[in-house]
Amino acid sequence: MKRLALVLMALLCVVTTVPGTARADNPIVQTIYTADPAPLVHNGRVYLYTGHDEDGSTYFTMKEWRVWSSADLVNWTDHGSPMNVATFSWASADAWAGQAVHRNGKFYWYVPVKDRASGQMAIGVGVSTSPTGPFTDAIGRPLVRNGEIDPTVFIDDNGQAYLYWGNPNLWYVRLNADMISYSGSPTQIPLTTAGFGTRTGDTTRPTLYEEGPWVYKRNGLYYNVFAAKCCSEFIAYSTAPGPTGPWTYRGTVMPTQGGSFTNHPGIIDFNGGSYFFYHNGALPGGGGFTRSVAVEKFTYNADGTIPTINMTTAGAPQAAALDPYVRQEAETIAWGSGVETEPASEGGMNVGWIENGDHVKVKGVAFGSGATSFSARVASATSGGRIELRLDGINGPLAGTCTVPGTGGWQTWTTVTCPVNGATGTHDLYFRYTGGSGNLFNVDWWRFTAGAGGNLLINGDMEGGTTGWGASGGALSSVTAPVHAGTRALSITGRTTAWNGITQDVTAKLTNGRSHTTSVWVRSQSGTPSAKATLAVTAGGTTSYVQLTPATPVSSGGWTRLTGTAAVSWTGTLTGATFYVETTAGTDGFSIDDASFE
Ligand code: FUB
């Protein structure tokens, strides 16, 4: 992919010479070509399942699927490829358009892939306990096989799940609760012009329905958003009063645009906004077989109809600022130029193939009252180079420079740290990589350290074991799994009352009257208790309690972020202040990770 990366770098060099030019954030992945987006909201993050168009393809040459995730719709973390054609021993090729759903504490990923025995396209189902995989073949054979493609899965409010798919026809079947078998036979949805619009110029296909259905329900109305007409496709939709119809054609969602003769829809609601995912040929070298996934924010009309959505290079607005004081993956990228990613020996992915002048942009980084140092996990089989920390542009103010040494191998990791100045407030952060010729170094993760007024918690990422932390009852321990990020989290067990929590003394850190922003990730070990972060402030002989975050249900299936802003003030002499995470009721054990109190 370096060829694409180099072209991108050249393009961005041109862009950055124009003062004030808004930096595009669509397409959302620049390191490879991606297609067929299928978003899934889970535990406060958007997981995005895509295909991968091989470089220079002249057909839908697709060997693997990829997963990305984001908490803000702008900075996307690369989770690599947790499923590929070889995952399905019975499949021979064509890792085409699928969708993943969450049920029974598992993630089921339905995909079309070529069945070796019949030579026909079939629908396989991968399963994993994690949204990022790895996925295994759930049943060891096709779930359904009729030569048609593009599965979408919808679980109705009553628990009945439906699998829809098809090109040139449109099919559905009722999935059983196990999500890997079905009842009844695949049934064809009548493709009437009333239901799916009128296509002209193709007597074999009288309606607009082509492929790529995306079925969901909103406010009691069932939607089927699909790729219409060929070719080039546009995105259209139909609605129905029930999951099996009757469908009524409602018109265009996204006109034919963007330099790819296919398009493919995926729709979610996330943090109160609605988002439409699609693909186009907008990256350099892009086209019908070298596509890229993009996203736009939209608002439903009052009557539930979908407005016409146009492709933009700006993409969706950032849904939440990024916290630089917890470990961030180097492969969390708003826009990358010249770099690629690969699996890292310490887990996850790393950014690699870094050459002089390459850069990565991370958008909307909330430095708050200021960072004092920057650390990064790096490796270099050559003699390393430098990471320049620039604000708001590749040539923006330099907040620090970290020197990366040779470490003896591309996966031989060490942590480098350098001082930081002038990083306050919220900025787009540019990592500008410099050095000699050829590949310089790899980066696995990074983190800033706050000065006074930054993260007031010691060991907020829990990587230092239980250092700084205590428990108000129960047993506190440092655990290696599950973790939210990094290699350690804190766990409390043996709680006998709801206020038994994980605590840290912050008496020396408080300033009377200051407002504090809190963020902490929580996961229960059983049940779904509501958790909250609280500050107990003892002053003038009395103790008062400041609720730092709203009480939020947490589950054992994944991590939930508690976040909030609260002012802290007191009267008299401050004698004690304790930050703690507890539950509102019950005694379920829970874990916390990546906490900041700023
Ligand atoms: O990506 C391969 C095929 O192209 C998909 O299955 C279709 O939806 C179209 O996007």
Please tell me the overall pLDDT.
Answer: 93
Count up the domains.
3
CATH topology of the largest domain: Tachylectin-2, Chain A
Name the CATH homologous superfamily of the largest domain.
Glycosyl hydrolase domain, family 43
Specify the CATH class of the largest domain: Mainly Beta
The DSSP helix count reads 2
Bound molecules: beta-L-arabinofuranose
SSE order and pairing:
Blueprint: H1 2-16, E1 33-42, E2 45-53, E3 64-70, E4 76-78, E5 83-84, E6 91-93, E7 99-103, E8 106-115, E9 121-128, E10 136-137, E11 152-155, E12 161-165, E13 171-175, E14 182-188, H2 193-196, E15 209-218, E16 221-228, E17 234-240, E18 248-254, E19 266-270, E20 273-280, E21 292-298, E22 328-329, E23 332-333, E24 335-337, E25 340-343, E26 349-352, E27 359-366, E28 371-380, E29 385-391, E30 398-404, E31 409-419, E32 426-434, E33 442-450, E34 470-471, E35 475-479, E36 489-493, E37 502-505, E38 514-524, E39 530-539, E40 542-547, E41 552-553, E42 560-568, E43 574-583, E44 590-597
Antiparallel strand pairs: 1-2, 2-3, 3-4, 3-5, 4-23, 6-8, 7-8, 8-9, 9-10, 11-12, 12-13, 13-14, 15-16, 16-17, 17-18, 19-20, 20-21, 22-33, 24-27, 25-26, 27-32, 28-31, 28-33, 29-30, 29-32, 34-37, 35-36, 36-44, 37-43, 38-42, 38-44, 39-40, 39-41, 39-43
The structure holds beta-L-arabinofuranose.
Describe this entry's structure for a reader.
The chain is mainly beta. The protein has three domains: 26-298, Glycosyl hydrolase domain, family 43 (Tachylectin-2, Chain A, 5 Propeller), CATH 2.115.10.20; 328-450, Galactose-binding domain-like (Jelly Rolls), CATH 2.60.120; 470-597, Jelly Rolls (Sandwich). Helix content is 3%, strand content 47%. The strands form ten sheets. Strands 1, 2, 3, 4, 5 and 23 form a six-stranded antiparallel beta sheet that branches. Strands 34, 37, 39, 40, 41 and 43 form a six-stranded antiparallel beta sheet that branches. Mean pLDDT is 93; it is low at 2-22. Beta-L-arabinofuranose (FUB) is lined by residues 35-36, 51, 60, 62, 96-97, 112, 149-150, 211-212, 227, 262, 264.
